[in-house]
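FIELD: query
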Amino acid sequence: MQGANPKRGATASSYTMLQLKLMLPLLRKEFLEAWRDRRALIMAVSFALLFPVMIAGGSTFMIKKKAEEVTRVAVLGSAQAPLLAEKLGGPGMEVASLEDGEPRSLLGQGYHLVLVIGDEFDQRYRDFLAPSLYLYVDSTNTSSGRAQRQLQERLASLQQLVVTQRLVARGVAAQVLAPWKLEMRDVSSPSARGALLLAMVPGILILTLFVASLATSVDTSAGERERLSLETLLLQPLPAWQVITAKMLAVASLGWLGSLMSITALVLLMPLMPLAELGIQQATTLSGVFSMGLLLLPLALLVAVLQILLALRSQSFKDAQTQLSILQIAPLMLLMALDMAQVSLEGSWQLVPLVSHQQWLKDLLVGEVVSLPVVLAGSAVTLLCVVAAVLLGARALRRESLLSAA
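FIELD: result
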């Protein structure tokens, strides 16, 4: 058995170093063009900071509104049952006893519900009959459903109290009609409640990758073709895969920057969000930001090269913008559909790009442990997709019809 030829190994190593050395000017050119584009930078930064602010502000508003909102109930005919109107009042419910009024007009005056007690209520109640209560609601009011459920719960508890008092007065144990007592106990963990509240965040972080790199990907492909600078670049003694790789790295740098800024802004805004009121503890730290950034790096490369390939296939600069705008919405709709359908994403799903990244980001946001072997395997699959896309793009650059597509 003959040993390896050291001269051949040295030649291969020298060739690789020469190729990398020739690629450095191309990388410098692509990065300078990408980072000098103010429009692309403004889009990446503004979008990256916009959604964390919207999420923090929206969640704060909804939680505060839910905690501070008081149900207003107008009771007509309270003279027939004064104790009923008195017992309904309490925390979260404001009861106003009115002598007269029209239910429709009262609902239009800021009352969520109108409870009408009939004239026969007192007599029928004393006769142990079932007097009627009339509840008027406005179903077009978004708060009416919550108010109706709250009032029905209080009426049910008062009804049970009356039944118990009547049984005790006649020497009958209340347990006769209530053979068991149901107690609700919430066993959800703070991380699970956090995952429910922050369910949309991973999809938005992934969307940031698409939006932040969109302008640069269109400009470096369809834009250069229309400016005829792509033809000059292809005449240089460089392999086509190096051209695609250099453009991919420049585009991915902007997308990755946008996602990192979005993650960092969200983590910094979390202390300002009233998560403690829901029993949710902030689990994401700066180390979590670093971990999420590493997870998104292979995906940023894949998004960048797919955007470049799609832009190269377009007929014009505007056509590329339109196609990429559709591309950035489609993955978000897919991830939202999987969330709404509550599909179990276990096993081989952890190797699918986008889907696996969404699941990993969810876990890291609420402090769950992510399996390192699964992350490495999923990232390897994503990188293989990147390599395949680069080779496909290199093949597309060798077509003469590419420059005449515009």
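FIELD: remark
The chain has two domains: 25-63+191-402, 70-185.
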